[in-house]
Amino acid sequence: MTESSSERRFILLFRLLMAWTFLYSASQVFNPNFSVAGFLSDTKTFHDVYAVLAKPAFDPALTFLVGCGHLLIGLSLLVGLMVRLSSAVAIALLLMYWTAHMDWPFIGNTDNFIIDYHIVYAVVCVYLIAKHAGHVWGLDAWAEKLALVDCHPRLRRLVA
């Protein structure tokens, strides 16, 4: 690691802030009044793409999967294990949410012109991948040394 101690603190801070964001989001998804179909049926720019997923038949399964995805991403970032994978999945989700909120060129409302917090969060996740954030006070450094990872080199990409 070539980062200074202050940069390592920022990496940890960003990782924990993103963990909190996804863990809190997971807690909201498990609210019985929440529905992914309700969220997706409000889309404007890419309505035809998301309307397929907004069907009532898909809602229970999709709501469960979104909640579990948020929970797993949040836990991964919290403990620093498989941060590369969880950050990549987080980026994909954030970009989907960004397009779902889009009423081109505004995102969510007229206060956000093209860029909103989804893009900022996605950039933070890119930073976490680039800086190997799981190695900064996380379990990725420990997991990289496991015999299982030595035996299966493909696993190294998840923790390296």
% residues in beta strands: 5-15%
Mean pLDDT: 90
β-strand number: 3
In angstroms, what separates the terminal alpha carbons?
12 Å
Structural class based on helices, strands and sheet pairing: mainly alpha
Strand order of the largest sheet: 1-2-3
Q: Counting H and I runs of at least 4 residues, what is the number of helices? A: 9
Domains, number: 1
Brief overview:
The chain has nine helices and three strands, in the order αααααβββαααα. By secondary structure, the chain is mainly alpha-helical.
Would you kindly provide a written description of the structure presented here, covering whatever features stand out?
With 160 residues, this protein is mostly helical. It has one domain. Helices cover 64% and strands 6% of the residues. The chain has nine helices and three strands. A hairpin with a 1-residue loop joins strand 2 (106-107) and strand 3 (109-113).
Question: What is the secondary structure topology, with strand pairs?
Answer:
Elements: H1 5-29, H2 36-40, H3 47-51, H4 59-79, H5 83-100, E1 102-103, E2 106-107, E3 109-113, H6 117-130, H7 140-144, H8 147-151, H9 156-159
Antiparallel strand pairs: 1-2, 2-3
Helix pairs in contact: 1-4, 1-6, 4-5, 5-6
